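Suppose a colleague, Dr. K., hands you the sequence of a protein chain of 180 amino acids and asks what its three-dimensional shape might be. Before reaching for any lab equipment, you can write down a predicted structure in token form. Begin with the sequence itself:
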Amino acid sequence: MRIKHSALKIILAAFIIGCFLPSCGKTDKPKIAIQQSIKKFGTATVLSGLVVGKEAPMKTGTIKVTGIDGKLLASTDLEDSNHYRLEIAANTELPIILRYYPKPDSLEADQLVAVVIEPSITQYDISPLTTAIAEAAKALGGYTRANMVMAAENRVNVPDANKTSTGFRGDPTKQYGGWH
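The predicted structure, expressed as tokens, is then:
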């Protein structure tokens, strides 16, 4: 019996070492590229929305639409209104960037940005929040849907008291809109 017990211990030790030894010294994990289909506007599409600054609506300035490569696709000026409306040509590949310039010689820090990643959505407001989301998505690796969602989730300010139902007194089925 004693021999079988020792042999079993040796086999078990070899198995454990065999499981962990191949990973020793390796720092590079295989990178798996997520394939993302190229989205584009199937037809000429009108984009519209509002331009809102930190404290007030922006009623003058220019909005330029560029492709990811920086190529100018469309442009419009705001004149006594913070509403904009732009037509984007059919077959325009997404993402595209809506960039608001308060003045023609505006510094990058003064610009507001919104990124279009979905061809089915045509209403895009441009604000400091959309600018922060775009910057965060770019820092995460680019304007992909996953990065935009992650960046947006990190920018939403939800009070800690509303994140869980811990300590909630009352009917929990009514707290989140009646999910029963």
